[in-house]
Design a protein that fits this description.
alpha/beta, Rossmann fold, 14 helices, 7 strands
């Protein structure tokens, strides 16, 4: 059994509870041991463009505590995964900043150590659990349902650091969906931004970006979509009413799931064990096809 420190970040435990619920119920059934990481705080990603040193410090703190525990980190959030990996690279190459961060951490009694592996949900499912094991555990295949994988921009970029999926030809996400029995495929702007980072200062343009994603998915015959990023989930799942109102298109409706929720459904878990009652998009459309009630 592979063991990971479960790093939730700040968005998941404050707004996107379904991701944590489904991850905690699904991953152990796949042979993944999750170890709580209560000492970890925000990765600092929201500070990236405002206070670089603050951003670096916050991620370096998480990496250093994890390194002392001797376990790799599982970052559920795309932004957290990107932040932690980028800070590892920055600290490796910037000696001046590395010494500054080391001094700041020493005030907390923490020794700087960024020699720790960081993995994302998609990597854990694809590389550690493996496609064949996932297939073997499926008891409720998603047969006949065409599902659009939406990786989100930070799963693919920046390309100067290791990413869970290669930006040029991402395949892991769709391989997992195929293992669950779903139909997969490509669509325009599959690797584009969902608009979440624009939401605080330009909601109108953020909603238009998300609207384009949903329209492309529906135009290409997809009946649902799935992501592994809490920011993307918020835009695609909980903002559909606002998006329809902004662009004036009532057809922009699609069921949205976390990938952990779909894996859970396929291996036989009940909707409430996956937090599906917390999804705001019409997930009942897919559940009905599987013969499952959201109230189970």
């Amino acid at each position: 059994m592979s063991k990971f420190l479960l790093f939730l970040g700040c968005t998941i435990p404050t707004k996107q509870y379904a991701y944590e619920i489904s991850a905690r119920n699904v991953l152990p059934r796949l042979g993944i041991e999750l170890v709580d990481f209560p000492e970890a705080g925000c990765c600092g990603f929201p500070l990236k463009g405002i206070n670089k040193k603050g951003w670096v410090y916050m991620s370096a703190r998480i990496l250093s505590i994890a390194a002392k525990k001797g376990l790799p980190i599982l970052a559920l959030c795309n932004g957290c995964d990107t932040s932690l990996r980028k800070i590892k690279d920055i600290l490796k190459h910037d000696e001046v900043l590395r010494n500054e961060i080391a001094e700041l951490l020493s005030r907390e009694g923490i020794k700087l150590n960024f020699n720790v592996d960081v993995y994302h949900t998609i990597e854990v499912l694809h590389d550690f659990v493996g496609i064949e094991r996932i297939k073997a555990l499926v008891v409720r295949p998603l047969k006949g349902i065409k599902i659009a994988s939406y990786p989100g921009c930070h799963m693919l970029r920046p390309t100067d650091i290791p990413r869970p999926e290669p930006s040029g030809e991402p395949k892991k996400f769709d391989s997992i969906l195929s293992a669950l029995g779903a139909e997969v495929g490509d669509y325009p702007d599959k690797g584009g931004c969902c608009g979440a980072t624009m939401l605080p200062y330009s909601p109108k343009h953020a909603f238009k970006l998300t609207a384009i994603k949903i329209k492309n998915m529906k135009d290409f015959g997809f009946q649902a979509t799935t992501t592994s990023c809490p920011y993307c989930m918020e835009m695609l799942d909980s903002k559909q009413d606002a998006i329809r109102a902004e662009v004036g298109d009532d057809t922009l409706s699609i069921p949205v799931f976390y990938i952990t929720q779909l894996v859970g459904l396929a291996i036989g878990l009940k909707p409430k064990e996956l937090g599906l009652n917390l999804n705001l998009s019409p997930v009942e459309e897919v559940l009905e096809r599987l013969g499952v009630s959201i109230y189970e």
